[in-house]
């Protein structure tokens, strides 16, 4: 039986930002929109809108968005958000 020690894979992405500066990010700090929506307990559509509005830190890569994991976890929706529910 072969046992392997646990390891962490660190991925980095170099890309040009809008102001033409080279940026290096750690992809392990970012999650997909569906995962971020589950962490923040909101819909995927709303998560995309939060990124666009700048309320959650994220970036567009190609057609998709990447969301900062800490920002998604820290997002706190207003306790009375949404339509009123009958008791």
What is the overall silhouette?
Answer: elongated
CATH class type of one domain = Mainly Alpha
What is the topology, as strand order, of the major beta sheet?
Answer: 3-5-4
Our Rg estimate from Cα atoms comes to 17 Å
| The CATH superfamily title of one domain | Winged helix-like DNA-binding domain superfamily/Winged helix DNA-binding domain
Which regions have little confidence, pLDDT < 50, spanning 5+ residues? none
Strand content: 25-35%
CATH topology of one domain: Arc Repressor Mutant, subunit A
Terminus-to-terminus distance = 57 Å
Mean pLDDT: 76
Query: How would a crystallographer describe the biggest sheet?
Result: 3 strands, antiparallel
Q: Total helix count? A: 3
Mind telling me which CATH architecture of one domain this is? Orthogonal Bundle
Instruction: Give the strand tally.
Output: 5
Q: Encode the helix/strand succession as letters.
A: EEEHHEEH
Structural class: alpha+beta
Estimate percent helicity.
25-40%
